[in-house]
Amino acid sequence: MATAAVWLTFVTAHLVLSGQWWVWHLVDVVPPPLFTVVPLLLAAGAVPSRGGRRPVAILASAALLFGAPLSGWNVPALWTSQHASPPGAVTVFSWNTEYWDSDGGPFYPFLQGQRADVYLLQEYLNDGDVPTPVHDLDRLRAAFPGYAIAVAGELVTVSRFPIRQAFPLIRSTENGWLGEFEREKILRTDLDLGGGRTLSVYNLHLPVQISPGLSPFGGAFWRTIRDQDAQRGPQWRALAADVDGNRGPILVAGDFNTTPGMEDIRKVPSRLRDPSGLLPTVYPATYRDRAGLPRWWRLDWAFTSADVRVHEYRFGGSGGQSDHRYQLLRLSVG
């Protein structure tokens, strides 16, 4: 019974502190399925105990009730199917490239093979102690002739449709690439779909909360968590403000560095909808996409306004070129 009480206390504390206290980011990284698995195991373990069965069942049920929305299970996948995409549907490919073309794999052929109309790509930078921009736009243009390209910091949007305007929601006020990398985390591009239709696409990569390469016994580890949290807040607020002021069709997609178990995911603007019910898997996860490693977390998301209809939504493997799976959506506007 004590264990069940401790777990219920933990879940309650998580609901209160996640997204509110930067130290709690250490707890935020727990695999979301634990919010359902643990109370079920506690209840099952109490079955042989006649005296403790009832109180444990009550405590475990409460923990399950509070924790189920945080667990990441995609129950609608059990009965929902993909829709047939109508002619003219727009194909959008979103992917955290894990440092642009850094593993020597067939990077550009992989991108071309998606046959997408719009590419939302994150981490257009080199891997190193200091982030460094990649100067590869000529090669990108050669791979996608006729496509429009917008770049802000580490974000690249490639579109078959003309780009009416493109800008980061937060502009760096510092000179140099490092300021752009740290501040320009949401790139908005307004795409001219033709027929008087415009789709605002937000390419997003929120700062990761924890640096696994630092020791928790050093001050740099804790400063990094605090500083990254301070960077995430303004990005969420900028997204909310811009979406609120944009009454046209909207798609927001990218690497949120946010799992279903983090309260930060509730900061997504309320007028946006989550099409995850279309995903053909009961437990959708995008991280980590490496052979032999557990894939317990979903960090990549897509959200649309009500006037955007999503016909198909799925994740796909990176072929070992990234630690993130990609997102692919087929949608229509108007």
From TrEMBL:
Top-level division of the source organism's lineage: Bacteria
User: Which Pfam families does the record associate with it?
Assistant: Exo_endo_phos (PF03372)
Q: Which GO terms describe its molecular function?
A: endonuclease activity
| Family annotation (InterPro entries) | Endo/exonu/phosph_ase_sf (IPR036691), Endo/exonuclease/phosphatase (IPR005135)
Q: Which UniProt keywords apply?
A: Endonuclease, Hydrolase, Membrane, Nuclease, Transmembrane, Transmembrane helix
Q: Which residues cross the membrane?
A: 34-49, 56-79
The entry's protein name is Endonuclease/exonuclease/phosphatase family protein
Q: Where is the Endonuclease/exonuclease/phosphatase domain?
A: 95-324
